[in-house]
Write a sequence for this structure.
């Protein structure tokens, strides 16, 4: 289908309209970032009207190009574009409610709020890394779309850009075009105050094709985009020299316009300089509406035809069939001894056959994490079919790329590493939770039982820390069977991210494990004696469940009433109805012992009575020694758990 090119004069008028709209929005809100929208308006308008394959009337068209504004502070620009494009989601009234409670035009663009916004951005650098994930998924999907990422000096400075772009270059990830809004200004002033590296040579050394242009010269932008979109064999970086605050009479080229409204006078000056009526606000000339409408109409025709020709590609991630997953699970015999990381590997492989959309890898620890999909093949330079990815030692990029893969649609991205390094991934896990994206993280070596590697490698506060992220579901299974059920629950959870914590060391396969119990976060795995106010109630997770059971059995042998609750997912348990929670952890059972090889933080919520609640938890960092020695030193022995229980029994 031939596409009518939008000419330079029309582009300029459209870009200037966007500049005025953005400044009006920001002035009205008395809050926002005008500098980047004004600086990037020409680049963004040119892309939108002449290159971006995006149908505003079918924003989920699977063949669409993916567009990311990694510097989410340019949100006004995003909203102005979506408004003009005619998705219908952003009316002029909505633009006037920029940054107000309940508006779709939130401070930074959020996936889910504005249909067509692919990923939430704002934490600098993550958008670029998610763009790598989107581009990787695009290659895997075979739909042939491109991924365009706008990024700025801040994105370039962030460590994650080095991680993600180095990987993208190594993999020769073509179809990805990053447009670098190079205005040499950040909040504190000149970017050179803190960064003088040569971005061109940096990216060339990663294996990227680097192009450059004047970001305000439409002919040059057009030429560069054309070359970039045709380039095969490597990702492309377009270094576009721009002026922050372009058009603002006194604040252009100055950090002053980065994050503060221009204000009435400066905005009038901006409009006058751009040939607009200084007294008119939220104004869009008819010609500008017309060019956006014409582009949208063309795109809609293309998308419709594409959908007719590819009815099999829906772009949706299907929720897997529960019964099929359960039937495929390996069975573990009580009494056997299996590290939950090993069980994790077996279970994951059994389920991966039924869930072809599962793709991901490890940050160079796959043999330890046990997260290789056997026979799945690897993503390699120029070859993207494999289901396994060598992320390299790049945990944060791994998590953000997994988010990009998941956000593309039709895939579930996962990443894995040692649990202690989950901190390196946390910002991206948080963003997944905010986006309600069902990415998966697998963390092996989940406690001081790591042993000889010592405290640098022994997570202590990490369970508590992950449990604080709203919307994240964590699983710390007690044994191989719970691990199997946890995997099923992670795959069924399509409304947010999940994490699985597994042991390095062997743990016994337990009796009494119940799928319903894992699905509900916590359940009674063992009890003895007449259950009532005198029962000693143990609540434990992961490798400490078998320890609690052993201690409970010792007390039971003396005729005491005991109960052990396994709580693989604290947040799922807390989300259950009162009846379930009360049946598992009855309020009248106030004698409680909580056992977890992590800090006590968070567990006080489970104390019915402080005087009769005891904790076998970690008070500080771990240490370097054989883990059996550490278990003695830190009190994770049957003897100590029994002794602790006796204090209240
Ligand atoms: C991870 C992270 N750190 C800090 C910030 C706060 N911040 C927002 S924009 C910005 C400066 C970005 O500079 P640049 O990308 O050059 O944007 P420009 O000033 O050119 O618009 C900073 C530090 C952030 N959003 N994310
Ligand atoms: Mg800048």
């Amino acid at each position: 289908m031939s596409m009518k090119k939008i000419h330079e004069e029309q582009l300029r008028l459209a870009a200037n309209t966007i500049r005025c709209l953005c400044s009006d929005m920001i002035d009205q809100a008395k809050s926002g970032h005008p500098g980047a929208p004004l600086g990037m308006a020409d680049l963004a308008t040119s892309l939108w009207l002449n290159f971006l394959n995006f149908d505003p009337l079918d924003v989920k068209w699977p063949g669409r190009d993916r567009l990311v504004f990694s510097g989410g502070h340019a949100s006004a620009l995003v909203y102005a574009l979506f408004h003009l494009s005619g998705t219908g989601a952003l009316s002029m009234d909505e633009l006037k409610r920029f940054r107000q409670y309940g508006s779709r035009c939130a401070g930074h663009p959020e996936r889910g709020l504005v249909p067509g916004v692919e990923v939430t951005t704002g934490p600098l650098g993550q958008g670029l890394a998610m763009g790598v994930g989107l581009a990787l998924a695009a290659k895997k999907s075979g739909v042939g779309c491109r991924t365009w990422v706008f990024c700025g000096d801040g994105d370039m400075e962030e460590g994650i850009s080095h991680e993600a772009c180095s990987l993208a270059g190594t993999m020769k990830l073509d179809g990805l075009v990053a447009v670098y809004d190079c205005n040499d200004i950040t909040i504190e002033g000149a970017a050179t105050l803190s960064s003088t590296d040569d971005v061109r040579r940096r990216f060339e050394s990663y294996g990227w094709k680097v192009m450059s242009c004047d970001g305000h010269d439409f002919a040059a932008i057009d030429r560069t985009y054309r070359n970039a979109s045709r380039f095969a064999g490597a990702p492309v970086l377009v270094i576009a020299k721009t002026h922050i605050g372009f058009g603002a009479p006194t604040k252009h080229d100055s950090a002053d316009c980065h994050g503060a409204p221009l204000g009435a006078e400066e905005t009038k000056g901006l409009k006058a300089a751009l040939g607009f009526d200084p007294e008119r606000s939220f104004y869009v000339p008819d010609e500008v509406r017309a060019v956006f409408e014409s582009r949208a109409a063309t795109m809609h025709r293309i998308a419709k035809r594409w959908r007719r020709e590819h009815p099999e590609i829906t772009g949706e991630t299907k929720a897997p069939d529960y019964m099929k997953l359960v039937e495929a699970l390996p069975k573990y015999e009580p009494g056997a001894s299996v590290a939950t990381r090993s069980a994790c590997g077996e279970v994951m492989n059994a389920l991966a056959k039924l869930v072809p959309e599962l793709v991901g890898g490890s940050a160079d620890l796959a043999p330890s994490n046990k997260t290789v999909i056997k026979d799945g093949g690897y993503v390699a330079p120029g070859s993207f079919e494999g289901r396994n990815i060598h992320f390299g030692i790049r945990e944060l990029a791994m998590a953000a790329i997994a988010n990009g893969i998941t956000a593309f649609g039709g895939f579930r991205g996962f990443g894995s590493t040692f649990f202690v390094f989950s901190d390196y991934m946390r910002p991206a896990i948080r963003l997944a939770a905010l986006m309600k994206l069902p990415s998966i993280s697998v963390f092996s070596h989940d406690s001081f039982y790591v042993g000889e590697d010592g405290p640098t490698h022994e997570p202590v506060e990490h369970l508590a820390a992950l449990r604080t992220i709203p919307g994240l579901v964590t699983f710390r299974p007690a044994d191989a069977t719970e691990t199997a059920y946890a995997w099923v629950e992670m795959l069924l959870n399509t409304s947010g991210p999940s994490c699985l914590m597994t042991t390095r060391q062997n743990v016994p396969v337990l009796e009494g494990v119940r799928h319903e119990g894992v699905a509900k976060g916590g359940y009674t795995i063992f009890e003895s004696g007449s259950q009532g106010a005198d029962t000693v109630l143990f609540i434990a997770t992961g490798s400490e469940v078998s320890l609690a059971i052993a201690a409970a059995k010792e007390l039971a042998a003396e005729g005491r009433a005991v109960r052990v609750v396994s709580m693989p997912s604290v947040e799922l348990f807390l989300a259950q109805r009162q009846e379930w929670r009360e049946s598992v952890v009855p309020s009248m059972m106030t004698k409680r012992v909580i056992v977890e090889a992590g800090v006590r933080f968070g567990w006080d919520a489970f104390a019915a009575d402080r005087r009769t609640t005891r904790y076998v938890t970690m008070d500080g960092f771990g240490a370097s020694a054989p883990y059996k020695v550490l278990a003695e030193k830190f009190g994770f022995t049957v003897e100590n758990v029994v002794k602790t229980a006796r204090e209240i029994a």
